[in-house]
Every structure is written in structure tokens, then in C-alpha cells.
Amino acid sequence: MFCKCSVHYHNLQESLRTIFIFVDLFIVFAFIRKRLKHAQHAWMVYKPVLSSEE
């Protein structure tokens, strides 16, 4: 019985680790997307300035 329990616990640990990896990836992806949006916005703002300076 104890062995069964430990195996179940090990499986739970594995699945938790997988979930955490997915969550980390999702957070990183969302963060990068947000930064890209900001960068795009900044580029839209700075582009006319750069072209007018030439």
C-alpha cells in the first residue's frame, strides 16, 4: 500500500511539474507579447520623428 501511495505521489509531482512548466511558458509568452506591443507602439511613435530628422 505504501508503495502504491509513493508511486501516486510521484505521478502527482510529475504532473505538477508539467503544469508549472506550462504556466511559466504562458507567463513568459504573455510578457513577451506585451513588450512587443509596447515596442510596436514606440516604433509607431518614433518612426515619424526619425523620418523627419533625415
3D architecture notes:
The chain is an all-alpha fold. It has a domain at 27-53. It is built from 1 helix and no strands. It is rod-shaped. The mean pLDDT is 84.
Question: How is this structure best summarized?
Answer:
By secondary structure, this protein is an all-alpha fold. 96% of the residues lie in helices and 0% in strands. The chain crosses the membrane at residues 15-32.
Largest sheet: none
| Bulk shape | rod-shaped
**Count of extended strands:** 0
Low-pLDDT stretches: none
Overall average pLDDT: 84
What gap, in angstroms, lies between the N and C termini? 77 Å
Strand content is under 5%
Structural class: mainly alpha
Helix fraction by DSSP (H/I, runs of at least 4): over 70%
Please render the helix and strand layout as text:
Elements: H1 2-53
Main attributes?
single chain, rod-shaped, transmembrane, 1 helix, mainly alpha, membrane, 54 residues, transmembrane helix
